[in-house]
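User: Predict the full complex structure for these chains.
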Amino acid sequence: MKDAAIILSGGMDSVTMLYEYQPDIALAISFDYGANHAANELSFAKYHCNALGIKHLIIPLKFMSEYFKSSLLEGGDAIPEASYNEDNMKSTVVPFRNGIMLSIACGIAASNGLKKIMIANHGGDHDLYPDCRESFIKAMDRAVYEGTYERMEIFAPYTNLSKGEIARHGRRLGVDYAKTWSCYKGGDKHCGHCGTCEERKAALREAGIDDPTEYLN
Amino acid sequence: MKDAAIILSGGMDSVTMLYEYQPDIALAISFDYGANHAANELSFAKYHCNALGIKHLIIPLKFMSEYFKSSLLEGGDAIPEASYNEDNMKSTVVPFRNGIMLSIACGIAASNGLKKIMIANHGGDHDLYPDCRESFIKAMDRAVYEGTYERMEIFAPYTNLSKGEIARHGRRLGVDYAKTWSCYKGGDKHCGHCGTCEERKAALREAGIDDPTEYLN
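Assistant: Here is the predicted structure of the two-chain assembly.
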C-alpha cells in the first residue's frame, strides 16, 4: 500500500531505503537547507525518483544557513578532515535537523492523505547526532501521532543497522552507489578525506562493493 | 534569566505571553507560512518586539501554502463564518503546524545558546487542533529533549487556560489588544464574523475589556 512519504537526502542510506521500500512510497521529500553539498545530493535524489517513477518535492529551507550554527552550513573549508569518532565532527551537527524534516514531512504527508513518514537514520549516527537515536525517533513518533487527526506514524527501520549493513541491503537490491552523495565539502567530486567520505568508503568495503566513487585524490 | 525563545504570531495569546514572560525571553520567532492574515499578524508581532526591545526573526515557510491542505492558506473566501465549535472550522487546520514551528524554533534556540521554547497554545484550541493539546506538547517536549545536545525544553504555560483567562492576564499587564490580530480572512480590518473573530470578541468580553478592535461591520 502506497501510504508513506520518505525523507530523501540523496545519500547512500535514504537512497537504499527508497529502493527497499519502493512499494510503500507515494512521495519523496528532500530539503535544501543551504548545506555545502546540497546541489550534489539533491540531483541524485531527483535521479532515483525519476528512475522509480516516485513523485519528488524539494522544500527550500535556506533560512537555516542564516540562523543555525553548524560547520555544515558555513562553507567547505569549515568541514573537519577526521573520522566520525572524533570530537570535532560535532561541529557538523545541525541542531534538531531531523525533527524539522520529520515535522514538515508529517504536515505534507497528512495533507496528501498518507499515514507514514520514513527516515533513514542509522546506528552509526547515534553517537554524534542526538536526533538520530532511537529515543528521539520514539518521542517524535509519539508527537506526530498525538499532533495530527490522521494519527501519523514514523517508520525508521534502519535505526539499529550499521551503514555497512545498509550497503549490504543495497548490494542485494542493485543500488547504484555511484549515484549517491556523501561528502560534506561540496566540491564536484567526493573529497575522500572528510568524516562522511571515510564512513562511505568503510561501508562499501564492509558490504563487499567495489567503490564506484570518483574521489578527488 | 533570558534563556527562552518564544513563537510569536502577533495574535492575542502569544502577545500576552510575550509581556507576561518578558524577563525570560531572549528571542521571538514568527513564521510566514503564506496564511491569508500573515501581513497583519506579523506587523503586530514586530511592533511588540520593538516596544520591548526583544530580537525578532521572521522565518519564511511559503512552501506551506503550496503543499499543505488548509482553508487558512487558500484565500479569505475559503474561511467559514462560524464559531469554533462547528465542524467546518476543521478546514482551517494546518496539519502539524505547531510541530513544525516548535522544531524550527528548537533548532534556532539551540544555535543561539538558549534552553527553552515557549508557545501560547491554550485550552480553547484543544477540540479543534490536535497539535494544541497537552498530550502533543508533552510528546514534543520529550522529542526536543531527546533530540538535542542542549536537552531543550518546551514551556507552554497557557495549555490549560481559556482565551478569556489569557485576556485577563493581558488586562492586568496592560496589553494593548488593538495591536493584535485574530481574523483569518486577511482584510485590512477584522471581519467580525469568522470563528477567530467571534472567539476574540468573547475573550475580551469575558476579561471585562472594552473591545478596541475596528471591525468591518
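Chain A has seven helices and five strands.
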